[in-house]
Specification:
Blueprint lengths: L13 H16 L6 E2 L5 E3 H8 L4 H6 L2 E3 L5 E4 L4 H10 L9 E10 L11 E10 L4 H16 L7 E7 L6 H13 L7 H9 L10 H7 L11 H17 L4 E2 L11 E9 L7 E7 L3 H4 L7 E7 H11 L7 E7 L4 H13 L4 E3 L6 H10 L2 E7 L1 H6 L1 E6 L5 E5 L3 H7 L1
Parallel strand pairs: 1-5, 7-8, 12-13, 12-14
Antiparallel strand pairs: 2-4, 3-4, 5-6, 6-11, 7-9, 9-10, 10-11, 14-15, 15-16
Helix pairs in contact: 1-11, 2-4, 5-9
The chain binds adenosine-5'-triphosphate and magnesium ion.
Length: 415
C-alpha cells in the first residue's frame, strides 16, 4: 500500500467546504482593491530563492526541497510566492508602462519543516504583491486588506494585528551594530541557532522562540528607537492611516521578517489558538528586491496568508453546513431516459442532482439517498409514468406525495 510523503496530506470531505469558503472570498474581495490574479510555476531555479529570500534565512538554509536537474542545474519547489511574482514582474516587463501594479496568487508552497499543528511540508498560501509606490498609504491599505479579509470570517477575537518598522539601509546597519554588540555581551546565554545568527542575521534573534533567548531579547535595543527621520516619518504616517482605515493594531518591535530586502513596514496577523504556529498572515515592504533580482528600482510590498492555518481557525469558530444533494432520482430501468431528462432540467436550474445508478430495492435506494444527505428523493416507476404524477419524498419529514412533472422545479425553488 502506498502512503503519502511525510508532512504532506490529502484534503477532502468536510474540510473542502472551508477551503471553498476561503477561495470564494478572496476571489471576490481582492479585485475590489485593484488586485488581479497571476498564476505562477511551482518549480523555479534554486538561485531565484537564494537571491530573493536570502541565504541566511531558515527557508533557504534548511527548508527547501531542492534537486539537481538532468542538465546539472538546481531546481526548487517554491517555498513562497514573492520571489516568483517579482521574477515574473521583471521577466514579463510588467513595469511598462509605469503604474501601480497589483497581483494576487494562490497555491501550494513547499518547506521541509518539522510537521506539527499548523505546519506542513506542503501548505497553501494566498498572497498579494503591489509594485510602484513607497507611500505609507499603500502599506496601510494592504494591512487593512489582510485585516479585513481575515476578520470577515468572524475571527476578530482569535486574531491580533502586529506592526513594526524595521528601518532601511540608512538606519538599520547602525542598529544592527548596536544589536550585535548587545548580544555579544550576552553571548553565552544564546541558543546555538542564535549564536550562529549573531553575525549573519542578528535581527532574527529578536524573533527566537527559545525561552533563554527571549529573556535576553527583552532588554535589547529596539529598532523603533533607532529609525532615521525618513523611516520614522513613514511609520508615523502608516499608523495614522491605519487609524483612518479603522484597523486595530499593536506595535511589536520584535517582528522582523527574515529577509534582507525588507524595509520599513513589517506586519503579522497572529493567533494564540494554533500553538507555536502563531502567524496566520504576514508581510512587509521590500523596496530593494526588484532591483536585487535584476529589475528596475521599483518599490514593492506584499503579504501571504497561510490557508491551512486559516481553515483551522474557521473550523474552531463555526461549523459549516454539510454538503447536500437537492434531489436523488430513483428510476426503474425502462424509464431511464425520463430520469436523465429530468436530471438535466434540474441541473440546468442549478440544483444538485444524483441519479441512482445501481437500482436495488426502493429501501436500499432510500438508504443511499440518505448517506448523500439528499433533501428529496424522486421516484420514476410504472405508476408515475402512466399517471404523469411523480412521487417525491421529503427526506427530513419523511412525508411522501405526488407532483406533476412540470411542477417539480417550481416546488424545489419554493422549498
Ligand atoms: P512561521 O513563523 O510560522 O514559520 P513564516 O514566517 O515562516 O511562519 P511566512 O514565510 O511569512 O511564514 O509565510 C506566510 C504564512 O504562511 C505564515 O504566516 C503561515 O500562516 C503560513 N505558513 C508558513 N509556513 C507554513 C507551514 N510550514 N505550514 C503551514 N503554513 C505555513
Ligand atoms: Mg517558517
Amino acid at each position: 500500500m502506498f502512503k503519502k510523503v511525510k508532512g504532506f496530506r490529502d484534503i477532502f470531505g468536510d474540510d473542502i467546504r472551508y477551503w471553498h469558503l476561503i477561495e470564494d472570498s478572496f476571489k471576490k474581495l481582492f479585485p475590489t482593491f485593484g488586485y488581479e490574479e497571476i498564476k505562477l510555476p511551482i518549480l523555479e531555479k534554486t538561485e531565484l530563492f537564494v537571491r530573493g529570500i536570502g541565504d541566511t534565512t531558515d527557508i533557504v538554509e534548511k527548508e527547501m526541497f531542492t534537486f539537481k536537474d538532468r542538465d546539472g542545474s538546481y531546481l526548487s519547489l517554491r517555498p513562497e510566492g514573492t520571489a516568483s511574482v517579482v521574477r515574473a514582474f521583471i521577466e514579463n516587463k510588467l513595469y511598462e508602462p509605469p503604474a501601480i501594479r497589483k497581483y494576487y496568487y494562490y497555491g501550494p508552497m513547499f518547506r521541509r519543516e518539522r510537521p506539527q499543528k499548523g505546519r506542513f511540508r506542503q501548505f497553501y498560501q494566498i498572497g498579494i504583491e503591489a509594485f510602484g509606490s513607497e507611500s505609507p498609504l499603500l502599506d496601510a491599505e494592504i494591512i487593512f486588506l489582510l485585516y479585513k479579509f481575515l476578520n470577515d470570517f468572524d475571527l476578530k477575537d482569535f486574531l491580533r494585528m502586529e506592526i513594526n518598522s524595521i528601518g532601511c539601509p540608512e538606519c538599520r546597519p547602525k542598529y544592527r551594530d548596536k544589536l550585535i554588540q548587545y548580544f555579544k555581551n550576552n553571548y553565552e546565554d544564546l541558543c546555538e541557532d542564535c549564536k550562529r545568527r549573531l553575525e549573519k542575521n542578528p535581527l532574527r534573534i529578536l524573533d527566537c522562540k527559545v525561552e533563554s533567548c527571549k529573556v535576553i531579547v527583552k532588554d535589547a535595543p529596539i529598532i523603533l528607537d533607532n529609525l532615521c527621520d525618513v523611516c520614522d516619518n513613514h511609520f508615523r504616517k502608516l499608523k495614522s492611516y491605519l487609524n483612518q482605515f479603522g484597523v486595530e493594531y499593536n506595535v511589536n518591535p520584535y517582528i522582523v521578517r527574515g529577509l534582507d530586502y525588507y524595509v520599513r513596514t513589517a506586519f503579522e496577523m497572529v493567533t494564540d489558538k494554533l500553538g507555536a504556529s502563531s502567524a496566520v498572515g504576514a508581510g512587509g515592504r521590500y523596496d530593494g528586491l526588484i532591483k536585487e533580482l535584476g529589475g528596475p528600482d521599483i518599490p514593492g510590498i506584499g503579504f501571504a496568508i497561510g490557508v491551512d492555518r486559516l481553515v483551522e481557525l474557521i473550523k474552531m469558530k463555526n461549523e459549516l453546513k454539510k454538503d447536500e444533494v437537492d434531489i436523488y432520482i430513483i428510476t426503474f430501468e425502462e424509464f431511464t431516459e425520463v430520469g436523465i431528462n429530468i436530471s438535466n432540467e434540474l441541473r440546468d436550474a442549478g440544483f444538485k442532482v444524483n441519479l441512482g445508478y445501481d437500482l436495488g430495492s426502493i429501501k436500499s435506494e432510500m438508504k443511499k439517498a440518505n448517506r448523500l444527505n439528499s433533501r428529496y428523493v424522486l421516484i420514476i416507476g410504472e405508476d408515475e409514468i402512466s399517471s404523469g404524477k411523480f412521487t417525491l419524498k421529503d427526506m427530513n419529514s419523511g412525508e411522501q406525495f405526488k407532483i406533476n412533472r412540470d411542477e417539480i422545479i417550481k416546488f424545489l425553488q419554493e422549498n
